[in-house]
Automatic annotation (TrEMBL):
GO terms for biological process: cellular respiration. GO terms for molecular function: oxidoreductase activity, acting on the aldehyde or oxo group of donors, iron-sulfur protein as acceptor; thiamine pyrophosphate binding. Residues 51-197 form the Thiamine pyrophosphate enzyme TPP-binding domain. Signal peptide: none annotated. This is 2-oxoglutarate ferredoxin oxidoreductase subunit beta. Keywords: Oxidoreductase. Pfam families: TPP_enzyme_C.
């Protein structure tokens, strides 16, 4: 008998391309378990991805899937949701895919508050294209394009999403896989734009260059550096340096884009009849 996760996978697409120790499979499993727990109809579930290591996940899933162009996953997903608002649409992106070439699409999807669930695989690096630094690479960390350390400040993806208008924002690490599953479920239930940042390890492209060890050691690093929202409330700014705050970070309310769009269509039809 196939497991809960295996029943939603395209077995003919395996073995996967991810390196040993990569955390992307953990994120993929959390997503599938969340979809299963939500009771989503597989025929009415859509998974859209861009380009990169994380975006290959869509090809392994037995839903309606699109593997799109670099940085444009949210643009494709927006079109799908506008045309078929009854569908459950999940968007998988890497840190560079979502916040560099796809940054404009990201902030405007948040601004519109369109009912999409965006899951950002944050491994702090461009893994597939050669290990370049991304907008989420921490200052001082090394990459092929920053051999002496990155001098740029990194985005706080949660604050960026919140500031742009997302109505649900959360974060978990691959060490906290159960929490990640629950946050994805909560994001999918939110009627609006939801962002779940999944901190995941790239032991080959990022960990090796920054002397963080193998995949297991990077998982333990996540455990040691993560603090919950409640824990963070009791900590000083100095104590929070180099810490990852995990859990539900923001929940708000705003009109949902496809609902407003349908209302406009109805008003326009009323005037022409």
């Amino acid at each position: 008998m196939l497991s809960q996760v295996e029943s939603h996978l395209r077995s003919d697409r395996f073995p996967h391309i991810w390196c040993p120790g990569c955390g992307n499979g953990i994120v993929l499993s959390a997503l599938v378990r969340a979809i299963e727990e939500l009771g989503c109809d597989p025929d009415k579930t859509v998974v859209v991805s861009g380009i990169g290591c994380s975006s290959r996940a869509a090809g392994y899933l037995d839903f309606n899937t699109l593997h799109t162009t670099h940085g444009r996953a949210l643009a494709f997903a927006t079109g799908i949701k506008l045309a078929r608002p009854e569908l459950d649409v999940f968007v998988l992106m890497g840190d560079g895919d979502a916040t560099a070439i796809g940054g404009n699409h990201f902030i405007h999807a948040a601004r519109r508050n369109i009912d999409l669930t965006a899951i950002i695989f944050n491994n702090s690096i461009y893994g597939m294209t050669g290990g370049q630094y991304s907008p989420l690479t921490p200052p001082g960390k090394r990459a092929t394009t920053a051999p002496y350390g990155n001098i740029e400040r990194s985005f706080d993806i949660a604050e960026l999403a919140k500031g742009a208008g997302a109505t649900y924002v959360a974060r978990a690490t691959t060490y906290h896989a159960t929490m990640l599953e629950k946050l994805i479920m909560a994001g999918a239930k939110n009627k609006g734009f939801s962002v779940i940042e999944a901190i995941t390890a790239c032991p080959v492209g990022y960990g090796r260059r920054n002397k963080m060890g193998n995949g297991l050691q990077m998982l333990l690093w996540q455990k040691e550096h993560a603090v919950t929202v409640k824990q963070a409330e009791k900590m000083s700014p100095e104590e929070l340096q180099d810490k990852i705050i995990i859990g539900e970070l923001y929940r708000g309310e705003a009109p949902e884009y496809t609902v407003m769009y349908e209302e406009i269509i109805a008003r326009a039809k009323g005037k022409t009849q």
